[in-house]
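Worked example 3. Consider a protein that binds 4'-phosphopantetheine.
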Amino acid sequence: MVRGPSYYRGRVTIAVFPGSFDPITRGHLDVVRRALRFADEVVVAIANNAGKAPLLSIETRLELAREAVQHLPGVRVEAVPGLLVEFCRAADADVIVKGLRGGADYDAEMPMALMNRHLTGIETVFVIGDPALAHIASSLVRDVARNSGDIEDLVPRGVAAAVCRALGAARTTKE
Ligand code: PNS
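Given these inputs, the predicted complex is written out as structure tokens:
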């Protein structure tokens, strides 16, 4: 049985789902759908990760994510200009939501969750993603595409073409 927000007594109204989304994948969409089971609104929050140089511009990441969630009521996509916790405060968010594929994700996410809680007290809720999608990571998607592999099954419609365009532009710039 699929339970909606009323099962959780509507206590979580706004959940912020942050990430680089470089690009958005089917794994991300799975997390959004799961978050909608306990949150009335999910904000897909596209931020910059200090440890990674993105392939896609923020404009492209926003556009692709917006297209991918347009059929999901209660979901919007926004850019995070600075600290995630400040974004959450401005959005009046109740929780941050993140997906876990396995132990490596937990190890990476735990310090961020602790830091965000230290900064403003906001809690992070972890959802376990669909194991059938556990192999999908944006970094692997980029790597497969970079080496001419097929990524169509791993990402929402329109994303594969945008990734290939960005890789083509990056190659031309390097030459
Ligand atoms: O998808 P990612 O790259 O794992 O997401 C990491 C991200 C972008 C959510 C994180 O780097 C972040 O929150 N960046 C915004 C700046 C910030 O608040 N940094 C402190 C994080 S504890």
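Take a moment to read the result before moving on. The mean pLDDT is 93. Helices lie at 26-35, 58-69, 84-90, 103-120, 138-146, 159-174.
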